[in-house]
Protein: NADPH-dependent 7-cyano-7-deazaguanine reductase
Amino acid sequence: MSYTPSALGQVSALPASPAAAVLDFPPNPRPGALYLVRFTCPEFTSLCPVTGQPDFAHLVIDYAPAATIVESKSLKLFLAAFRNHAAFHEDCTVGIGQRLVGEMAPRWLRIGGYWYPRGGIPIDVFWQSGPPPEGLWLPDQGVPGYRGRG
Amino acid sequence: MSYTPSALGQVSALPASPAAAVLDFPPNPRPGALYLVRFTCPEFTSLCPVTGQPDFAHLVIDYAPAATIVESKSLKLFLAAFRNHAAFHEDCTVGIGQRLVGEMAPRWLRIGGYWYPRGGIPIDVFWQSGPPPEGLWLPDQGVPGYRGRG
Amino acid sequence: MSYTPSALGQVSALPASPAAAVLDFPPNPRPGALYLVRFTCPEFTSLCPVTGQPDFAHLVIDYAPAATIVESKSLKLFLAAFRNHAAFHEDCTVGIGQRLVGEMAPRWLRIGGYWYPRGGIPIDVFWQSGPPPEGLWLPDQGVPGYRGRG
Amino acid sequence: MSYTPSALGQVSALPASPAAAVLDFPPNPRPGALYLVRFTCPEFTSLCPVTGQPDFAHLVIDYAPAATIVESKSLKLFLAAFRNHAAFHEDCTVGIGQRLVGEMAPRWLRIGGYWYPRGGIPIDVFWQSGPPPEGLWLPDQGVPGYRGRG
Amino acid sequence: MSYTPSALGQVSALPASPAAAVLDFPPNPRPGALYLVRFTCPEFTSLCPVTGQPDFAHLVIDYAPAATIVESKSLKLFLAAFRNHAAFHEDCTVGIGQRLVGEMAPRWLRIGGYWYPRGGIPIDVFWQSGPPPEGLWLPDQGVPGYRGRG
Amino acid sequence: MSYTPSALGQVSALPASPAAAVLDFPPNPRPGALYLVRFTCPEFTSLCPVTGQPDFAHLVIDYAPAATIVESKSLKLFLAAFRNHAAFHEDCTVGIGQRLVGEMAPRWLRIGGYWYPRGGIPIDVFWQSGPPPEGLWLPDQGVPGYRGRG
Amino acid sequence: MSYTPSALGQVSALPASPAAAVLDFPPNPRPGALYLVRFTCPEFTSLCPVTGQPDFAHLVIDYAPAATIVESKSLKLFLAAFRNHAAFHEDCTVGIGQRLVGEMAPRWLRIGGYWYPRGGIPIDVFWQSGPPPEGLWLPDQGVPGYRGRG
Amino acid sequence: MSYTPSALGQVSALPASPAAAVLDFPPNPRPGALYLVRFTCPEFTSLCPVTGQPDFAHLVIDYAPAATIVESKSLKLFLAAFRNHAAFHEDCTVGIGQRLVGEMAPRWLRIGGYWYPRGGIPIDVFWQSGPPPEGLWLPDQGVPGYRGRG
Amino acid sequence: MSYTPSALGQVSALPASPAAAVLDFPPNPRPGALYLVRFTCPEFTSLCPVTGQPDFAHLVIDYAPAATIVESKSLKLFLAAFRNHAAFHEDCTVGIGQRLVGEMAPRWLRIGGYWYPRGGIPIDVFWQSGPPPEGLWLPDQGVPGYRGRG
Amino acid sequence: MSYTPSALGQVSALPASPAAAVLDFPPNPRPGALYLVRFTCPEFTSLCPVTGQPDFAHLVIDYAPAATIVESKSLKLFLAAFRNHAAFHEDCTVGIGQRLVGEMAPRWLRIGGYWYPRGGIPIDVFWQSGPPPEGLWLPDQGVPGYRGRG
Ligand SMILES: [Ca+2]
Ligand SMILES: [Ca+2]
Ligand SMILES: [Ca+2]
Ligand SMILES: [Ca+2]
Ligand SMILES: [Ca+2]
Ligand SMILES: [Ca+2]
Ligand SMILES: [Ca+2]
Ligand SMILES: [Ca+2]
Ligand SMILES: [Ca+2]
Ligand SMILES: [Ca+2]
Ligand SMILES: [Ca+2]
Ligand SMILES: [Ca+2]
Ligand SMILES: [Ca+2]
Ligand SMILES: [Ca+2]
Ligand SMILES: [Ca+2]
Ligand SMILES: [Ca+2]
Structure:
């Protein structure tokens, strides 16, 4: 393993903001293969920019690696750094996807943000970096819809 | 059938308020038997007494008939009459149960109110008229809990 | 097998009414054992006594045999005979249970009738012949509640 | 945030009719991105134009924003304004979609209306503004079918 | 509403046969829109042409309206009229679809018939009037497969 | 009905082997229509050719009829005849499909075999006679995956 | 391990009948503890004593060991030996329980037989050797009910 | 309504700590009735006292009111105030229950804390203030267990 | 926190055997309260004592703390230490429960072991240290039964 | 059967490493058919290359055979040999697929690895050997997403 992890195998502090979080990108261990990596992140919280109240979401990130992969503990810390960050649901979700694309330069990436209901109505946000590569196997994310009660 | 239905088999108008609704109580067709009748009412809506906004609930009513049963179309109209009525969740739920007990005088009755979330937190309300009669078969209502997203 | 089946192993006509149906009661093959037999009957239909429209139900019958058991093909024909019979949900459900008890004389019997919604509200009816015998293993019927949509 | 919300962060009254409701359209915070926003609205009710009785539905709205997004609290108030509005299921569902398209001018929009059963038969209505944009990630809505009982 | 309903808003008798049933076709309230209407009909029963025994099915009908829609109460009565009609599963299912197409002349229609098991094996039948129109949003019917027990 | 059934409406013996089983092919009652028939067969068992132990499977067969359909009771007897037949999972599953295609000459056929786990690992086998006909409506079979425990 | 297994760790032939099957009873490895062992056996098949046709069942066996436990491979072979045995559902289910009690002499045992439907109606059979021992932890078997279709 | 809400119907700031949060207790609207109120709170997060990392939980609170009820918006703000509070799972869960009992003095209260997995193992915590009152209807909380994957 | 953790907040090696694993018992943070702690452990594997092949299980442990609680990272390492340990299912499951009781001396403890199928038949093992304390709230573990396929 | 199995029908030892495991490839019993074989492997465990801790996964392998098939007991032993092998999730999953392709030379193969969560975030890995062959029937794997709790 030719990279030095900033977080994995250590005890790590929570970054102060998304901007302060450091993402680690070890070399792709199967660089010749076209494959998909999916992260499921049910522990996401940020703040509402209008009311200051906490928001919660379940996030699912899919990507096809190019030269590197993203190390999951550094990803966890990056996501945890939204804890005191205020932004709209659409902005957070698409922004996480765009930052990962900007730093990792994968072949392709998408993110689904499944937000908890406010006012009885949840919002889901779906973004991808472009059309998926030909030949990539891409199962759907399968997060169940919100159903209210009963 | 020795009673005159006020609603069943006819086209009926929506009552103006819960107080204005008429409940029909035909004779119990199996008066010697101790049995349970369950109504499941997923189409309930009322108003919040503080904000005036609509509230929604899924109601389940269980009762053991004595001399009469409640006719289901008149029950439907009674529940539909909460549409413009403003009251707390606890008040609506327990109040529906108490009115049915007061007019029908069943051996026993309970009501479960499963309210849609507000502020991310749903409220459920459970009331019964007393301990269930000995020997009554009483399955649980089995309404699934609220789970947010993911 | 010391009894002559009226239906099993033969091609049988539909009885004209519940009263015309013949139930077969072969000897209990394990007469010394206290055990439960459950029939699940999702194919039940009768007529509404007020409107003449078809009603549908899912029935579950549980009983503990005494000297005889009820043969399932004759039971099927008995239930199918409600096809042109008009009665309230409460009446049909409790009546089926009472007829089986009257003819078979089991140690104990119960019936759950889970009726399809009318006016947005389904009715379930639960009856048993008395408290269940001590020592009988009696799982709950586990039919899911009605949930509307979503 | 360069727009003045008419509802978010405030206490708001229920609009008297769909026509009286005001929808807010803040600027799209990620205007360069092709993405999907999904609203799930399990708290919808209107009136039957023939009988005057309440109808209930679970709605799911999907759209790809262009210059603006729709603010969710104003959407909630618009939908709540159908409470005293009488129209067929097909008319309500398609009409909500057409109004949103007319005022917001998104790249694309669709609406699924999943109505509670009447007479034992629910109606679902599915409309979209045109073929979805190339490259948009569009998960299916996944609302379960109606199953009656059992 | 420029049509006179034969059934909706009234108390109606059950037609004597499918051929005797009258289907109502009010004008399409959104004639310019390409959209899908789905009816879910879990209350279907007919007779076996060989044995005379009752058969049961869960039907789902999808169509894209042209000039008219089908009124749901008249559809309910048409389907209920199969109660004393004897035909194979394949014949009933495809026949219902063909009659609706013949009388309503929709842009497109399909029907799925999900029949209850006989001899341990259920039959499902799937028919459509032709390839679905381009641009129509057509979710799958999602009826779960039969699983036996366990 | 112009064919003479070998099994339906009669009491039938179990065939001694798959080769000894007779399949009945009545005329297609809707010969002009392109439609799909699905059989779900959760009661399948054969023997392992290496160890002689019983194997179990859940089978789902889909086909588009040409001149004939397969009668379901004769299909049931054919499948039951594998009870004492020894073959690999891949061989049984594809072989059943090939025999049906050979004798019935449908427009198209596929079979999914979902085998119970051995050594902790179940095998599923999926075969079709060729690409499905254009315009055939073909829902997926939707059999859930094996999940071990928990 | 002080016993010689007749089947475990070896390749074994299928016994010719239930009577010919040998059950192994190794010493209870935790003889001082009151605990429950549950076997879930979804691969059970026997023959109908009237028609000779195959029957299928999902069995669940619970017992509290005394001096011995039953070895699972020998249990599997015993159950597989019903493959050519003809008996009623009630007889098979209770009989398996009684044989295990007779040979193993556990503190307590129960068996649930969940049979696949015949004529549209499945039968479940529930038997126990007596009231469960005080202090035994005994979860319910939780096998879902039969639901037909839809 | 004789109390002045501190939060409901207003825009509120997030309290700095659990100790700083103010809970509102309006009068019980049905003081003569023995009933249960359930809050489901899937949006809970706190910090690990050893590592400082965020923890997440799904909480369910059940209580039987005496003189007062707890207002749900003030409850939401109290729970949101754990966002920057560090404590063990056992401590948080039982502590929330004890604070509510101390300030509200209900007839009875219980809390279930269902924590997200750490190290592959989630912890659930269940506490109640004492045995539930006789005659209270108390459904189980029904939160599904953790199952890993597959 | 008055105890020194042997594992939490550190990087730890896998113990060589269950006997070599060290369990940590910090003081109970809510010593006056009678409450339940549940660990769900879906990542368990050991070896078969007869064949040497790997076995897998899903474990659920419930206990009511007395003076101490068990720290979850040390519990994880203890369970992981069964990776190269050979024992029967009954022995492993009851043995884990007995070791925890012996070292922690809780008020009460139970363990459920849900083992993956071998030979088509999974084994579940349920043990508890004695009758649960009066007044303890003890939800059932709710692990679904094994169902084979289909 | 013209091949000599190395494992099936025998008692086999666990290979010391993936490299040491021998995979058996009997001749394809249906060589003219284009079909899919799916293996579901919920019993997979390996070691983390950074921390040395055990990892767990649920694997699903799909392939279309050419001249040979892979024998399932030898596959089981190969997968079990990862028990003491240390590698990243991405590496293990893609590597298993590549080894099977290299030795068996199927027409096509894919593997889905569904890993248990670490740090609250599970990783799924999806790889295929190229675009699936035209005309192959390829159902999706349908493994449910991770949902945290609640
Ligand atoms: Ca809300
Ligand atoms: Ca959640
Ligand atoms: Ca209805
Ligand atoms: Ca139960
Ligand atoms: Ca609903
Ligand atoms: Ca209805
Ligand atoms: Ca899909
Ligand atoms: Ca049904
Ligand atoms: Ca197995
Ligand atoms: Ca699909
Ligand atoms: Ca698992
Ligand atoms: Ca059947
Ligand atoms: Ca974890
Ligand atoms: Ca329960
Ligand atoms: Ca329970
Ligand atoms: Ca099965």
Q: What stands out?
A: The CA atoms of residues 9 and 125 of chain H lie 33 Å apart. Residues C 140; G 140 surround calcium ion (ligand 4) (CB under 6 Å). DSSP finds two helices and four strands in chain H.
